[in-house]
Amino acid sequence: MKSHLLVVACLVVSAPALAAPPASKEARPPPCQDQTIERSIWPQGTSLWGTGRQVAEREMSSVLASVEMGRARLGDKTLSGLRLKGGRLVAPSASQELVGAVLQGAASDGTPVEVAVCGAEVLAKDSSLVWYRIQVWNGVSASWEDPCVATGRVPSPRALAVPGVWDESGARSDKGGKFTFACENGAIAKCVNWGYRPWAKKGGGSLAELHQACTRMARADYCGDGRSHTREDNLIDVYDGLSVLTRTTESSEAWDVKRASFEAAWSAEGATCLSRTRDGQEVETLMAQCPGRFEMAQKDLGEGDQCTVVRKGGAKAVLLRNRSYGRDEQVMHQGVAR
């Protein structure tokens, strides 16, 4: 059965900036309590982590960018031997509960942050995938807060435990004993949810590079430097060479095939070539934002996908392609992610 995906790049809001925990912990309230969180709101584009920004003016900053597995505790006990199996945190003993555990994490600038696991929901169709409810300690407000940013479509977002760590350029790396709590409204979690699970394999190959390419594509990060070039409610149709997702060929209420056109091809480092931008800016303007990366040239990828701008320095492996509406059609068609 073919899998199709139409997705929406959504605008998100920010949670309050988080500071390092204070030295004294005796007077702290317990984590994982229901509470109303005050949020500062500003346009952010499509988020990578799905978390609030650490610095309001910096698109690629996060209040929670990485989590350590080696320094977890549950009450007054240390949880040694915690590991990640697929998208699931596994305790050293099957009898040990992870809900209520507190882990050590870090913001995107390395500032220490404590992370509490408040709930775990195993995906019914795939036990390797668990949605977590998390909170982080905010030393400024002296309270536990949800770092995940809510949107109108997902007002109470959860988080996935994803192997690897992303930096502020959007690049992924494997760092021993660390992982990412990727919130539901961010590109990292979205790409997992769409089928690009970095721990999985298809056709004998790992999906890790496909997942990374997807995070670039979801945010329209053409230059591969972390900057997004998308707008709220921009529909995209995603397809890849392994047929994890295939191109949509029939129109529906949510997607008009005739109005859609090829946008770009993607590698783990950003766009390998493109025909136009998703946010409607001229390709020459984009090229000026990452000088020396692209050049004007024709490239035919087949199936009607033709590029007018290509990556310099030799061909990069095309892992994903996408189609989207042009500037005028985006206004006419609004859809829902599925």
TrEMBL record:
Residues 96-279 form the ADYC domain. It comes from Cystobacter fuscus. Residues 1-19 form the signal peptide. Keywords: Signal. This is ADYC domain-containing protein.
